[in-house]
Amino acid sequence: MSKIEKSDADWKAQLTPEQYRVTRQHGTERAFTGEYWNHEADGVYVCVCCKAPLFDSLHKFDAHCGWPSFNQPLSKSAPVAESHDNSHGMVRTEVHCEHCGAHLGHVFNDGPPPTGLRYCINSASIDFQERKV
């Protein structure tokens, strides 16, 4: 998948106001309010902006933080990229979709084995595709 570039007006037309605020303006939804924070179905979570596969439900866990949490991306080739985030007086690692630049959330070093990572992802930045049996 190649880089996706759209105008601000195109993103606003495609996304809900909350999806736009989170993915294009680096927003964060309130804890325990997103559609997927306690979602337990089997499948793949994709970028809400470009539909790139990002996370597998097999790697989802309840971090008791109020956001969907995963201990790793779908695969090593999943377009989950990282960058430094010094906003709001904190030093964090932001995760975003490498294909379209959508802000997804942040990754922390307090997750379960085997990775020890917690990808804390906004529900507004992902869609769910049920696994076909």
Automatic annotation (TrEMBL):
PROSITE patterns listed in its UniProt record: MSRB
Positions with a binding annotation for Zn(2+): 47, 50, 97, 100
GO biological process: protein repair; response to oxidative stress
EC number annotated for this UniProt entry: 1.8.4.12
Catalytic residues in the record: 120 (nucleophile)
GO CC, one annotated term: cytoplasm
InterPro entries: Met_Sox_Rdtase_MsrB, Met_Sox_Rdtase_MsrB_dom, Mss4-like_sf
Gene3D superfamilies documented for this protein: Peptide methionine sulfoxide reductase (2.170.150.20)
Cofactor: record remark: Binds 1 zinc ion per subunit. The zinc ion is important for the structural integrity of the protein.
Homology family: Belongs to the MsrB Met sulfoxide reductase family.
Protein name (record): Peptide methionine sulfoxide reductase MsrB
Species in which this protein is naturally found: Stenotrophobium rhamnosiphilum
Gene name of the encoded protein: msrB
